[in-house]
Amino acid sequence: MKKSTLVHLFLYYALLLFLPASLHAQQDFRVRGFVVDAGTGNPLPGASVQIESTPLEVTTDLNGQFVFGRVQGRTIRLKVSYMGYQEERVVLTPERIANGIRISLQPMANTIDEVLVSANLEGQQKALNQQRNADNIKNIISADVIGRFPDLNVAEALQRVPGVNIQRDKGEGSTISLRGTPAHFTTVQINGEQLPSVQQSGSRNEALDLIPADQLASIEIIKAPTPDLDGDAVGGIVNLRTPTANKLRWTGKAEGAMGYNDISGGLNGIGKLRVDRRFLATDKVPEGKIGVMLSGSYFSSNNSEDRLDAVWRETEILGQEGTWNLPQNYGFRKTENERKRTGVTATFDYKPNGFNHLVFNYMFNQRTDHDVQNRQRYDFDRSGTEWISFNEATGARVRRDINLWDEDKTNHNFSVQGYHTIRSWQLDWAGSYTRSSREFASTRGDFSYDDIDLRVADENDIYSAYPVFEATQPQLNLYNPLLYNDFRRYEEDAENTTADNLVLRADLTKQTWLWGFPLSVKVGGKYRTQSNSKLRNNQVLAFWDPNEVLNLNEAFTRVIGNKEPANFLFRDYRFGPLINEEKFTGYIHDNRYLLTQGSDAWDAERLSLNDTYDAYEDIYAGYAMGRWQMDRLMVLAGLRLESNSVRYDAFDVFRTGTVVEASPISGDRNYVFFLPHLHLKYGLDEWSNLRFSVLRNYARPNFVDVVPFVNYDVDALRLQLGNPDLQPSTAWNVDAMFERYFANAGLLSVGVFYKNLDRFQFTSVINSLPEPFPGYPETQGFEFRQVQNGKQATVAGVEVNLSRSLDFLPGIAKGLSVNANYTFASSNAHTQDRSDIRLPGQAEHTFNAMLAFDYKRFTIRGSVNHNGSYANSIASDADGDIIQRHRTQLDMNASYSWKNFRLFTEWINLLNEPSIRYQGTSDYVSRVAYFGYSARAGIGYVIR
User: How many alpha carbons lie under 13 Å from residue 406 in its C-beta half-sphere?
Assistant: First the structure.
């Protein structure tokens, strides 16, 4: 296209933008209004508003508002439809438009004898209407639906969605993965902008147990992003939307509950409060020019975890040929956890008129954990240890230790957004700043007995599910406190991680026509800069006691408590004496003047330097897209361009003997991605859609994986490297879906997806290097670890989703409703060393099922979630893979409502199925963790 032509087009559109409105007063005008529930006045998001006899159709936003930027004619006839409500037709005149439009919809009759309208459908209607009218494939969970389940945090709320797999930490949902992809392939956002992560692992995705689910208006799970959304989302995008006020009177909600944990016997409590109101209603802005919303949540719990951990490795058995997979370490852990989570959300919005809207939002989240971890550990990896049979080893070490583990995570999110309608133009812009931090402190004391001969006391051998160890020497009793005569290590560890994300974006949309059908053209740009920095300070100390003030041989007896855990691992398994937190900290405090740098302080320096880094990223993005509605067919196509500039600083660390040498090292990378998108949506009828999309996107590596650190340990024969050459993974994504909506707020959908990935990231683990690693001479035989790029991988799957009220059943059975979804996924990945393996995070089978019953003011619900097995990490050979076994969880809750009050009870993890990992095959258990069930009961009050 010639340069002069581009200039003429620019001047033409600029002229349209700035022409005075009076020149068009007789030809066109703007239409703005609201769609609300006739009984409650609540806004109805996702309602379809169509100008009859034209293809013009819009959808209401989260506040129930709709806008037609430029409409011609003296009289306009609107058709308004919303699932679960009676269709409404409205005739608009210029006078009525000038005074503001408020369209009230009547719910469909659903009263069956004395069965009231199903409480389960109230929030579901909002979510399904938004899904139905969306241009792309997504799932939406409204705040009302979130509140109907006993889900405390965002990760637990997401487990109900098809295609979502979650990992748990301390019994709660924590991190998520979408559609069989690794966790960091999924982007997590707050109000459309990414949430920076400060996870200890260095992952890009923050653990979602940080954010209370009750602070949100809705959660969007976008499985096929459009060009105006971030491109680093191979798995998809999870967008957390905060609420705004929507009524001209005070509304709010207060809720409090107390509960109990099965293992710890401790209490948990939760409190929630939300108030909001709109002010300054006028004829032009009948909903009120100013809205204020304040919300807060606080949760405190005392939980417990019983756990087994093991690491396996090929080892020789004395007198036998070959090698056998035997444990290097075996441990049992008892954790007492105190968790507190706080969430605060404040939103102020201002509408000077009906076509301009400013929204200011602040969100604060904090999660603190205090753990008391007691461990009984058996070490078989010492230089003098020999296995003499499958159930007996000589020269081992037995240990008992305590770890006082404190973590404080905070997140502050500030954002301002503007929405402006200028005739047929729409200008949206936003600026946001997010800061996350993690303060971590650990104090650990380790007591041991060395050179002990151990055997498995069970009738079986070391491969039994829960082996019981004993000393072969009759005089040595592993449960005798006097046995642990060596206070071998005292360690203090501190970590500080911070992450910042600053975003500026602008989007401009033009409504026009092409061949008699409405066309919207949208362009935009975004600048994002983020940083991630970690500082670690590890200290290893020892008592220097030349005058023998302390009898260190008896130190263990000074710090233990008076009782042992009962029913450990939910069986008759004896754990032994527990170290008491108060006694241990008192012992250290009273004798701190005798602590000095330990003989293995070199290890502390190595750990600190290996885990200290700074990372910086600048991302520039621009896109252009068009949306063309041709009767029943919608076509959305566009191109997104993203440029990434990455810089990292870390340390090279070499250790020989007790000498640690470190030197600064830096790295930088630049990438550019061209990301085409195509989305098709065809309406078979008013209630049925066919969808199809094909698009390209990418996933960046985790921060810690690209930091150019070096961990070279001669004595431990270990080499671990960062990988500054690690490349982002790119993917082509194809999706197709059929969906059928039911008038009473139900859905049946069947979808298929396919992802073709290049250069996916995985952890390469080589137990023994067959030859020196390039650049590191004399490393033959070392254990080697590095995150690397695989060659190619594919993920394909099917999602089926059913949500239905059973109101066709007779009598009170009409109060039943079901919600079920199932996802099948399969992957095939190739690395430099292996072929035809599963992609990390890919679970073959995942399903959810919910059965609810409503009768009058009473509701009861049972929910089942099944996470299929998946590879937690893959190594250079199958024996090193860590596999998370499938797990099923059953939750139940019930409530009774009376006037504005609600009494409720919730039961979580009733099956108490353990979380199990194994190494290579199920014969070699890597972890078994029990969390126990929890229960709580409470009362809520609503101001409508």
Answer: 10
